[in-house]
Design brief:
This protein folds into 4 domains: about 100 residues, no CATH class; about 110 residues, Sandwich (Immunoglobulin-like), CATH 2.60.40.10; about 140 residues, no CATH class; about 210 residues, no CATH class. A hairpin with a 4-residue loop joins strand 36 and strand 37. The chain has about 625 residues and is mainly β. It has a 20-stranded mixed beta sheet that branches. The chain is built from 7 helices and 43 strands.
Length: about 625
């Protein structure tokens, strides 16, 4: 506190301000201590200072100096300070400086004022706190007015429903029960009506709690696995191709799009008969076919033998290599009737998975834990009815909350650089050979034909554009995750990668030293047919111990001893191969990009992904317009 002495001078509007402060605290009310009659002479010299540093908290007193002045005049001599007027009264005003309490107390708080519950897939419960931060005064809550609260029930504290009074510094917890059935968009408000001025800056005295989110429905019917579940990832690239096959490529879509396609059917479970499950299946497609579904990633199953309990916030499972992500959804799944979705707070490799809030229900184990994506089905769907009580169909889901990394890191193994001096990775995983590998040769040739004479053909490049099809099958989830990151790092058609043919294309006939810049091969007509062209001018030497030596580029070729050819390289080999018997095979290697922006992963089971990719040879220098 501070005591300010207010002296007698001339009245002004500042006097009225200070008097109003005194009126509020009941000091001098009606006496007009600082409002003398018209023509009066009182004004506090410290009024501006008082206005700046705080508010009037009280008045110590009003002292009359008239008698003191008379005593001084009659007694000891005093100094004549005329024309300065000696005040005959002083007002001692107590000033309360601003403090933390002025900014944070004596008001009503909503904690939080706004709550975004995200996706509501199953019934959920949330809460918020109302806190009366007034230190001295109770506050009367007149009413609570909801707006757009369909499917939401507000439960007030027991025995304290509005109208009610809050004691000073009292807080209460309000509960919201959010049904999964209701409007798609959740934008509800609850207005609390308090006395005017209960919160500074809000004259009407109201405080508003806002609830946001959206409702979606879980698609609980898993794949039949009669046919593979197909996961599609689609990029968008603009490719400008010149006459000599030089390309300029630009990314048109930062994040790839993802799709899931699988066959699902009704089946008994969770107390439902086959007929009842078919009814649930049909009603789901009929009623919510145009809305978002929560679709479990059926290939990413984790088992929790202990089951789950109400209020549980941690799931003791390891999500490594699965599609769980922070801010995403997951589901505890027992059958088509028993399941509960949850929001993910954290899902580190090694686990556990931490949930937002707690689970609402207890589900006996064992249960399965799946990551969940929000997705929509195609606008046209077909279901089949082999007999009255059974329904099934194929569905394509377009994922809305795809979180795929738009720029995964390139593989570590590189060979050569592109036109921007960026090292280019090498595809390391050998394709499986249960199906034939295909090679398609396209010529960028122009045929001139006037229909009445000989035809002329102009081969602009002089070599074919090769398109290869590769197929990989994975039983190891970690290896699959590494491969998927590699192929995603290419961003569809945007970025090239070195790809070996994985065939026995050449036969080395003389040992190779690490500093050698030539390789002697068996004569296959290389200098006649291949002529150091792209796709046939780099090599991978695969040794029997699985060591790989990347050789090239071939700059020239010449005849050697009878039955031999000598290939000259642009750099030394780098690794000595003194024993030819150590070589498993020598394969040509070329710089390829994906033929299409879309690639598919066919899951024949939850742990058996198969990928087929078509790769297109780049026969000229390339330039990535946008990386």
């Amino acid at each position: 506190m501070a005591v300010i002495v207010v002296s007698q001078v001339v009245q002004s509007p500042a006097t009225d301000f200070l008097q109003s402060q005194l009126d509020q605290i009941g000091v001098g009310a009606g006496n007009n201590l600082l409002r003398p009659p018209a023509g009066g002479t009182y004004e506090p010299f410290a009024t501006n200072f008082i206005t700046q540093i705080g508010k009037v908290a009280g008045v110590v007193g009003l002292e009359d100096y008239t008698s003191i002045l008379a005593d001084k005049t009659a007694g000891a001599p005093i100094v004549n300070n005329l024309p300065i007027t000696i005040p005959t009264q002083q007002l001692k005003v107590v000033i309360e400086p601003p403090s933390l309490a002025d900014d944070f107390l004596d008001r009503i708080y909503m904690i939080p004022e706004e709550l975004d519950v995200g996706a509501v897939v199953s019934d959920a419960q949330r809460s918020f706190i109302v806190f009366n931060a007034h230190r001295r005064n109770s506050q009367h809550l007149k009413s609570i007015t909801p707006f757009q609260d369909d499917g939401i029930v507000l439960t007030e504290p027991a025995g304290k429903a509005a109208p009610t009074s809050y004691c000073p510094s009292e807080q209460r917890t309000y509960t919201l029960d959010i049904s999964a059935v209701g409007p798609t968009t959740i934008a509800a408000t609850f207005t609390f009506d308090w006395p005017p001025g209960s919160t500074p800056g809000i004259p009407a005295g109201t405080s508003v709690f806002t609830l946001l989110g959206f409702r979606i429905v879980l698609f609980p019917f898993p794949p039949t696995w009669r046919s593979p579940l197909v996961e599609r990832i689609e990029y968008s690239t603009d490719v400008l191709l010149s006459d000599n096959a030089t390309e300029q490529r630009a990314r048109l879509r930062k994040f790839p799009r993802k799709f899931y396609e699988f066959e699902a059917s009704a089946f008994p479970g969770g107390g439902l008969t086959l007929e009842q499950a078919s009814q649930k299946f049909d009603s789901l497609i009929w009623g919510f076919g145009a809305r978002q579904f929560a679709v479990p990633v059926w290939t990413d199953c984790l088992i929790l033998n202990a089951g789950t309990t109400a209020g549980q916030t941690v799931l003791a499972v390891d999500p490594v290599g699965k599609d769980f992500f922070v801010g995403g959804l997951g589901v505890v799944y027992k059958n088509i009737e028993e399941f509960e979705t949850f929001n993910i707070v954290s899902a580190p490799d090694g686990g556990p998975i931490t949930l937002t809030g707690g689970l609402q229900d207890t589900i006996a184990g064992p249960v399965r834990i799946y990551p969940v994506h929000t997705a929509r089905i195609d606008t046209a769907q077909e279901t089949l009815r082999p007999f009255d009580q059974f329904v099934f169909g194929g569905f394509t889901f377009a994922v809305d909350d795809n979180h795929e990394d738009p720029t995964p890191a390139d593989p570590a193994t590189t060979f050569k650089v592109d036109s921007e001096a960026t090292p280019l990775p090498v595809l390391q995983d050998q394709p499986e050979r249960s199906n034939d590998l295909t090679h398609e040769f396209q010529r960028k040739a122009f045929v001139l034909d006037y229909k009445f004479g000989p035809k002329a053909t102009d081969d602009n490049i002089g070599s074919p554009i090769e398109i290869k099809s590769f197929r990989w099958a994975f039983g190891d989830r970690a290896l699959f995750s590494t491969w998927k990151a590699m192929i995603q790092s290419r961003a569809g058609r945007l970025k090239p990668i070195w790809v070996p043919s994985w065939h026995s294309d050449l036969e080395i006939v003389l040992p190779v030293g690490d500093l050698d810049t030539t390789i002697t091969i068996r004569d296959i007509g290389y200098r006649t047919f291949y002529q150091n062209q792209a796709g046939r001018n780099a090599m991978q030497i695969l040794l029997k111990d699985n060591t790989r030596v990347y050789v090239g580029l071939v700059t020239s070729s010449a005849a050697g001893a009878p039955g031999e050819e000598i290939l000259t390289l642009d750099t030394a080999v780098g690794s000595a191969i003194p024993v030819l018997g150590d070589i498993a095979k020598v394969s040509f290697m070329g710089l390829y990009r994906m033929e299409a922006d879309l690639f598919e992963i066919a899951w024949e089971s939850a742990n058996n992904p198969i990928i087929e990719v078509r790769m297109r040879l780049l026969v000229a220098d390339t330039n990535n317009a946008v990386n």
